[in-house]
């Protein structure tokens, strides 16, 4: 699919730019429509498991609803607001409702853009792209890559240690003491793996210099620029719609 084959650095910089642009807006319509457009783009042009995407989106939705409620409930409402909106059993100033909706939809917009990147990006290719396109130091990039690879191994070791302790009848104390007992063998195993990895990299001639060749070359192609152009066009179109219906607003310290 198109999003999965994009240059990761171009994708990351596009999303970062859109996040900054959305942070400067403070109307509820633009981020709400942009959230829907981002979800549509992700589902149409991305290859991933849809149910996992919805599963990860649920916590952000709950957080956005909580922010909506708390912003309305604890806002410093004026004594005589010009306009009010009836919500269930009390009247709320219209300005407070718009502020709450703007914050909530911005949370969802940031979340959907983050999920677009996470679900359509290979992390190894992303780190290679950072080294080749954005000149990230190889020492830092390969360190992050090694740590990323170690996480599943630590999970497996944790399960093995827990099973071994259970066989020996050592699982009856409190959870805090049990996890503290797991920490020492896990830390020792992690140190051994890190040392072996460092020795292996040095034996293969890894020096950390920027002037190096790569087995996998990540290039920026012409079709990669369609993503920032398309997302930027959607964003500008939504701003024009907000201006047309008189909802557009910059952030001017409304909180």
TrEMBL record:
It is a multi-pass membrane protein. It is found in: Membrane. Its main location: membrane. It comes from the Bacteria. Keywords: Membrane, Transmembrane, Transmembrane helix. The chain crosses the membrane at residues 12-45, 52-75, 107-130, 225-245. The keyword Oxidoreductase does not apply. The keyword Acyltransferase does not apply. This is Energy-coupling factor transport system permease protein. It comes from Salimicrobium album.
